[in-house]
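Slide 14.
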Amino acid sequence: MRVMLTSCGLETEGIKNKFTGWLGNEVSGIKAVFIPTAANSPDAVQVLPKCLNDLLKCGISSGNITVYDLHKPMSAEELCKYDVVYLCGGSPEYLLGRINEEGFGASLKAFTVQNGIVIGVSAGSIVFAGNMPDNLGLVKCALDVHCGNDDCEKCGEADFTKGRIRLGNDQALIFEDKRAYIIN
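Slide 15: predicted structure.
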């Protein structure tokens, strides 16, 4: 499993380097699914170009990025033809509702089992956590994003026993090789 949950995407060199390390050397062939569904407000829509640029600045070709709005089913078999899923920010309630309505959670789980890479940004991270019922179940506690530097977690192994993980804008919660840890 390779999942990266963030407040703001590939905001730091450390987070970007972790992601590009997962991609390997043959970035030109990487195929990504870009999911802007949560961006259902003007403020969230304004951030979409920055999110798309996260993928482009890592060398993923714009021709290899498929926009998927979660308004039709995508099977696990179809999703597993891609290398990366990027879930944008906005409304976590709306995003999780669309995921559950389309049965995309099962496809996403199969994708991670096949070692696909998932990046969640803000709402795209919260849908994996215990903040809402019927979430994607990766984080067994609540996940707060956009926390101030004085309130966010220290880098290192993630401690889920506190009942809440607090990520700053320059942090990522990484799930990799049965480990969960925070970087910036």
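Speaker note: Strands lie at 2-6, 32-35, 65-67, 84-87, 117-121, 142-147, 156-157, 164-168, 172-176, 179-183.
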